């Protein structure tokens, strides 16, 4: 009523000094329910996180308190055997002094999680229910425009506001890593990959299959144990490989390998590629990747970010139910001594977010990553990176147009066991897939010759079947059913029971059908049946260059050699025909 009478004076309204006025807000002028929705968001995220199925190794590590036990210091500890002091009390897994003393460059992910939870006074065993008095502490970086913005504007790209646009990006070296070490179950795993390069001098890419397990040398660490390398169809080049990442053909190949690996209790853990160039003296290779050049090129970093984003790590402590990735990238190249060496890497969570938002693109300089230019459908926030200058002072610089790829890399250690005990223990290796052009063909004839030494012996058959490439080929034939594939997987996983399981496999219907088919056909027929298909597939992946036309033609009148494009002779001027 006062607003309706705003043209009147205060005295005419009957108001005097000291009077109390009460105001009410009209329904149309009341604020939206956005704060209430935002308050309910943490509870919805917590309920969603409770349904997340984490990896078994993460569940195992969460049950550990993570404390690093220290022995009693004889010089500094003055107490009895049943007491502790600051020199012998257990330390946290993220203790900076311990990590520096033991040469651990990046703390493990679980140690990083304990450091974050310590700010909320949560320590020790964290395998219980999620706390209800706090929001989920982890959140992946997101550099895309928020899709469901509550602002009163048209959706992107027609409109944008400060609530839906991403903030400026400041790249820093990631202090933690999702996987701490890559261990190859046997040197033969790498040697069989190198055999292709030794035979053709062409580079090769493969996908690593194995399992994740706890790493005792790093507090709450995780190691990727590699048991086999699957080589998809790809081009053969001396300076790199060409592979159609994300295609239906590649996805179908990996789906077959994933099924076989799952039957053996394994999974896809990463990828590996070679970058080798022969050097002098014989047996040495050129050293390209070092601190003064690059470790991974910008193109390789983007490929690693793409693959990691396709294989996210499930985490119940993250708001989106995912945080980072356990997918690793290995490179086989020459070291400073000219010897062949394997290095292992991951890219940071920021690199994965930049890949999702399409903010970075490889450059012609291998050690530089370019920032994309804005477009009508691509919002590019400001990107910076921090470094220490020659005066040992922190400096923030713009990442446009390019920045060093080191800000996206996380280094891992790699190792080989002292006493190898690989799961795929076959002493007669089967031909590796997609190697037709180096005369390694997978065919029914090769399968028959591979299984011939078994001679009905279940024990010998169990050894011959323990070959990953053989299992993928058998599964691709479509003859064996799920029961037979599961039996072969158990033969690989349970070596003590392998002979008994092999007898059960020999009595299965699918296996008997395969044996009958191999017995009824000769080796030449079986090889001829698959040679045409293998040749066509190899030609499709590596098309031969077209035959060059005849460079010259001889005149039938004066025998002068003329250029192929000439219609008449340059010497006698007579026509070609």
Provide a quick synopsis of the model:
The protein is α/β, with parallel strands linked by helices. The protein has helices at residues 34-49, 56-62, 96-101, 109-118, 187-200, 248-263, 298-310, 349-356, 444-451, 458-464, 468-477, 482-493, 498-506, 509-520, 523-541, and strands at 107-108, 169-171, 176-177, 181-184, 205-215, 221-230, 267-275, 278-279, 284-285, 312-314, 322-325, 328-334, 340-347, 360-362, 368-371, 383-388, 394-398, 402-404, 409-415, 552-554, 561-563.
Task: Spell out the key features of this protein.
3-stranded mixed sheet; 577 residues; single chain; 7-stranded mixed barrel; alpha/beta; 21 strands
The strands making up the biggest β-sheet line up spatially as 4-6-5-7-12-13-19
Low-confidence stretches: 543-550
Task: Give the overall shape, derived from the CA principal axes.
Answer: globular
How far is the N terminus from the C terminus? 108 Å
Tell me the fraction of residues in β-strands, as a range.
15-25%
Describe this structure in words.
By secondary structure, the chain is α/β, with parallel strands linked by helices. 29% of the residues lie in helices and 18% in strands. It has 15 helices and 21 strands. The protein has a 7-stranded mixed barrel, surrounded by 6 helices. The protein starts with 33 loop residues before the first helix and ends in a 14-residue tail after the last strand.
């Amino acid at each position: 009523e006062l607003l309706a009478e705003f043209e009147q004076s205060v005295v005419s309204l009957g108001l005097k000094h000291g009077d109390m006025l009460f105001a009410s807000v009209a329904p149309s002028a009341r604020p939206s329910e956005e704060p209430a929705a935002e308050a309910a968001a943490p509870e919805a995220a917590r309920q969603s996180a409770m349904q997340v199925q984490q990896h078994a190794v993460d569940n195992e590590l969460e049950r550990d308190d993570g404390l690093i036990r220290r022995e009693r210091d004889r010089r500094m500890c003055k107490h009895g055997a049943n007491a502790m002091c600051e020199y012998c009390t257990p330390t946290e897994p993220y203790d900076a002094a311990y990590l520096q003393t033991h040469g651990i460059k990046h703390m493990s992910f679980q140690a990083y999680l304990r450091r974050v939870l310590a700010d909320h006074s949560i320590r020790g065993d964290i395998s219980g229910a999620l706390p209800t008095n706090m929001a989920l502490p982890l959140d992946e970086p997101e550099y895309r425009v928020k899709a469901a913005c509550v602002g009163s504007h048209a959706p992107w790209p027609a409109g944008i506001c400060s609530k839906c646009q991403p903030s400026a990006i400041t790249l820093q070296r990631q202090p933690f890593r999702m996987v701490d070490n890559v261990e190859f179950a046997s040197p033969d795993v790498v040697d069989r990959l190198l055999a292709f390069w030794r035979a053709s001098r062409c580079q090769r890419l493969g996908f690593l299959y194995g399992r994740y397990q706890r790493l005792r040398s790093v507090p709450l660490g995780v190691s990727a144990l590699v048991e086999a390398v699957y080589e998809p169809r790809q081009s053969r080049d001396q300076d790199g490989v060409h592979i159609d990442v994300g295609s239906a053909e590649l996805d179908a190949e990996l789906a077959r390998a994933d099924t076989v690996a799952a039957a053996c209790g394994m999974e896809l853990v990463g990828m590996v590629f070679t970058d080798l160039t022969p050097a002098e003296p014989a047996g040495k290779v050129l050293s390209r990747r070092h601190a003064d050049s690059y470790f991974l090129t910008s193109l390789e970093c983007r490929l690693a970010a793409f693959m990691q984003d396709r294989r996210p790590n499930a985490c119940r402590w993250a708001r989106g139910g995912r945080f980072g990735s356990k997918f690793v990238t290995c490179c086989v190249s020459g070291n400073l001594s000219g010897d062949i060496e394997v290095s292992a890497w991951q890219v940071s969570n920021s690199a994965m977010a930049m890949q999702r938002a399409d903010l970075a693109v490889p450059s012609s300089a291998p050690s530089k990553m370019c920032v994309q230019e804005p477009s009508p459908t691509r919002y590019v926030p400001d990107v910076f990176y921090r470094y220490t200058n020659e005066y040992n002072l922190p400096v923030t610089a713009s990442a446009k147009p390019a920045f060093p790829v080191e800000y996206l890399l996380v280094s891992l250690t790699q190792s080989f066991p002292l006493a190898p005990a690989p799961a795929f223990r076959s002493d007669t290796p089967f031909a590796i897939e997609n190697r037709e052009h180096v005369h390694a063909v997978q065919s029914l004839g090769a399968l028959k010759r591979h299984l011939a030494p078994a001679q009905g012996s279940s024990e010998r058959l169990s050894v011959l079947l323990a070959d990953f490439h053989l299992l993928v080929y058998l599964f691709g034939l479509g003859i064996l059913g799920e029961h037979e594939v599961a039996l072969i997987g158990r033969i690989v996983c349970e070596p003590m029971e392998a002979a008994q399981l092999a007898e059960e496999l020999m009595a299965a219907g699918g296996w008997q059908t395969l044996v009958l088919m191999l017995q009824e056909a000769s080796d030449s027929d079986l090889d001829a049946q698959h040679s045409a298909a293998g040749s066509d597939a190899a030609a499709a992946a590596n098309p031969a260059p077209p035959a060059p036309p005849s460079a010259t033609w001889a005149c039938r009148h004066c025998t002068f050699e003329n250029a192929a494009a000439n219609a008449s002779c340059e010497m006698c001027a007579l026509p070609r025909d």
